[in-house]
Amino acid sequence: MTRLRFLIISIASCSVLVNSLLHTAPTTIKTRQSSSLHLFPDLFSKQQQQPRVQAPPNFVPPPPKPLAIAEGTDLKEFATASAALALRLATGAFVLGWKVDTLFFDDESRYALKLGPIRLRDSSSVLETAARPSSTLVLYDRESSPSCKRVREMLNLLDITFEVRPCFEDTETDYPVPFLVDPNADSTIVGDDDIIGHLLEKYGPSPDLFDRKALWPIEFRAFALATAEIAAELRGHPGRTQQSNARPDNAAMKPIELWGYECSPFVRPVKEKLAELGLPHKVVSCSRGSKNRDAMVERTGRFQVPFIIDENTGIEMFEGPEIVDYLEAVYTTKE
Predict the structure, then answer these.
(1) Which pTM value belongs to this model?
(2) What SS3 string covers the chain?
(3) How do residues 212-267 score in pLDDT, each as one tens digit?
């Protein structure tokens, strides 16, 4: 009953929030890169000094384990991450136009989901001819922001790899978020609606190739904001402020590569820890049907998320709880 009461109160609170949002025009300011230098000097500056960090002494990445709730997983945390997935209807778990290619894929060098004798191979029926960004998009983002979550989900749906620069409330990194920098279009876009429109226009399939209703969990703004707000509340609004013992130079680190997708309850704690530590990270979208699943199999011999590649230390590793512990060990102060 306590959980039900909390959910009812949360929905009521979100209804008030969404009602306010629906009667207030969202911030949607389109600018050029040159006019954004004062907002994001760290992105356009070439003079940053690269901090140096090392993996913990004698650190050995753990061996990847079969899909399961790993030892050391916080069950309450896993439950709230799974609830967040359900609230958002698993949006971003599948690429746009997801389809099953075959149930008996026989190429062991490429990804397929193994279910007994079945090897299910999937892909997208609409993204094959969609334009792909040649340079990485950069998203200035607040992890628990509902409007930022809409953008991240759309990037997963379109199977786009993107870099995240975490922003926090009431600090010098309190930028207007979400804010997207697209070097391929020589443009910057503020506001979730305008960013989503830009992504669909530049990197989405031709409108006649898919049913726009497939995007309703994102494009129905009231529903998206309300459910994302409840999900953030269940998770304790991660990334709203920076972790107190985060290294002060974390923002200048090389982006850590995170392979995964927005709604995965296994990936979520890692994504939140990267945000709370203020670490730039490059999200390699790996939703079902993504071509990046083949890329991971080629690199590691298997597909499993979360997976990180940390160029700052040279470490590559699987296993979410151990990745969180590793990030804590490397990117926090020791006082």
Answers:
(1) 0.85
(2) CHHHHHHHHHHHHHHHHHHHHHCCCCCCCEECHHHHCCCCHHHHCCCCCCCCCCCCCCCCCCCCCCCCCCCCCCHHHHHHHHHHHHHCCCCCCECCCEEEEECECCCCCCCCEEECCEEEEEEECCCCCCCCCCCCEEEEECCCCHHHHHHHHHHHHCCCCEEEEECCCCCCCCCCCCEEEECCCCEEEECHHHHHHHHHHHHCCCHHHCCHHHHHHHHCHHHHHHHHHHHHHHCCCCCCCCCCCECCCHHHCCCEEEEECCCCCCCHHHHHHHHHCCCCEEEEECCECCCHHHHHHHHHCCCCCCEEEECCCCEEEECHHHHHHHHHHHCECCC
(3) 999 999 999 999 999 999 999 999 999 999 999 999 999 999 999 999 999 999 99
